[in-house]
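Subject: Drug/metabolite transporter (DMT)-like permease

B.,
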Amino acid sequence: MTRLQANLCLLLAGAIWGGGFVVQSSAMKSLGPFWFIGLRFLVATAAVAPFAWRELKRATAPVTPRTYAAFTAIGLALFAGAVTQQIGLLTTTVTNSGFLTGLYVIMVPILTVVVLRRAPHWIVWPGALLALLGIFLLSGGSLSHLSYGDGMTIVCAFFWSVQVFLIGIFASQSGRPLTLSAWQFAVTGICATVAAMILEPISWEAIRNAGFEIAYAGVFSSGLAFSLQVIGQRYTTAPQAAIFLSSEALFAATFGALILGETITPIGYVGCAVIFLAMLLVEIVPEILSRRARSLA
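Prediction pasted inline below.
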């Protein structure tokens, strides 16, 4: 797979996540955050497990305990990010949530420098800042008074950055993208379900009322989109992946306008253009410089 194809996979993942934002919010009318996350990721596990099993059967070498430990750490980061985001949606605005979640665009390259002592391509820094600016403009260019939910969303952005960062390391090392996906889904689903059984009430009626949301989020927003993320990150860097995944905010606004009749302000359209510009720069500039270097060699 080429880097362009990988980045297109990440762009499609962002589109699916953007389309699922309304579904994710509406599910909270029937279910608590832990039950929704648990059921969502158990459905995702069931959807991806047959493909992961086929991948394992075709592999020439077994997965080591160290690799499974890494997959578990990725699952725990996903669980923490999903829970803090879902709890944040209870008390924060859509505007604040969309912008603050996008902070992982900046956090991922910082983690790369601090943990791996590896500087990303220089275009990633202006690209990340442009993506963050675009998300801010898309949210309306302002933030209301910060609340507890906003604080939880900032924590969510950190865990999201850890998940993207770890996948950037272990997706390519393991060569098992679907196994990684199914394993992280199972870890998240089990942790959330155990927490839900302890902390939240549940009824079959509540599950039926949120049945469509659980199915969509489980099969598409979780099973398909996160698998595309893992596959795409095998062939690109984590900082670049974070920028393409930040297109979630752009698609969320677009689907909100098309499906729910919400309006995008003029400054929001500027934000869409800025996010698109950031993705173009991250994709095109390294390629141009690489070709120029080869021509001079």
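The chain is about 80% helix and 0% strand.

T.
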